Amino acid sequence: MKNIKRLAVYCSSSDHIKKIYFDQAKGLGALMAENSMDLVYGGGMVGLMGAVAKSLKSHQGHTIGVVPEALKIDGVVNTIDDELIITPDMHTRKAKMIELADGFIGLAGGFGTLEEMLEVMTLKQLGYHQKPIVFLNTDGYYNELFKMFEHIYAENFAKAEYRQLYHISDSPEAAIVYLLNYQPPQLPDKWFV
User: Fold this and answer.
1) Over the stretch 1-13, which tens digit does the pLDDT of each residue have?
2) Are residues 29 and 51 in contact, defined by beta-carbon separation less than 8 angstroms?
3) Count of CB atoms situated within 10 Å of the CB of 6
4) How far is CA 64 from CA 7, 78, 80, 161, 182, in A?
5) What is the dihedral of CA 117, 120, 126, 129, to 10 degrees?
6) Per-residue pLDDT reduced to its tens digit, 55-110
7) pLDDT at position 176, please?
8) Average of pLDDT values for 127-146?
9) 158 and 191 Cβ atoms separated by less than 8 Å
10) Backbone angles phi, psi at 5, to 5 degrees
């Protein structure tokens, strides 16, 4: 596996969340910069998106914002990015982020974050990429989602080996260690026979 040079970070754009989420987002940004990992993200200056980007930039990191035309709004789009890519729509934005990234990490977030994380998991399951996928499970935020995943395995809607599609970390430090040591898993064929 090649080194992680660009990490896509999916996360909340809300400022109305607990401080611990911001603390871990800032910690992740600092660690990414220390490990020469560029940030690929949704280009927002608000919420956890803004926190990761500002922290990374304050530690001399490189940021790449990818924003759909409809969301290119003053006061929302970050003005500190080294690169800003404008796409015609959300579908193109997501595809561009996947193309640019060597790995993916999901911080706490809402429907958009979940959708992006599940998409990269599905693409990995189908063999479209072998890039690492990490959930940063700050304060147990994703515990209920992981219970749902276990239900999916128990009911045979996915093979239990697909737990290897993703990694769960409780801290930015643990997430970075996993990314630095990542080896693609040997996954079985998707289909039950």
Assistant:
1) 569 999 999 999 9
2) yes
3) 17
4) 10, 10, 10, 33, 23
5) -150
6) 999 999 999 999 999 888 887 788 899 999 999 999 999 999 999 999 999 999 99
7) 98
8) 98
9) no
10) -95, -35
**Burial state string for 133-156 with b = 16 or more CB within 10 A and e = fewer than 16:** bbbbbbeebbeeeeeebeeeeeee
**What is the per-residue pLDDT across 147-164, written as a single tens digit (0 to 9) for each?**
999 999 999 999 999 999
Tokens of 158: 């996915």
**Residue 144, C-beta contacts closer than 8 angstroms, at least 6 positions apart:** none
**Tokens standing for 25?**
């987002």
Helices (H), 42-190: 47-58, 90-100, 111-125, 143-154, 172-180
Q: Which domains does the chain have, with CATH numbers?
A: 6-180 (3.40.50.450)
The answer to whether the predicted template modeling score (pTM) of the entire model surpasses 0.85 is yes
d(CA 31, CA 47): 19
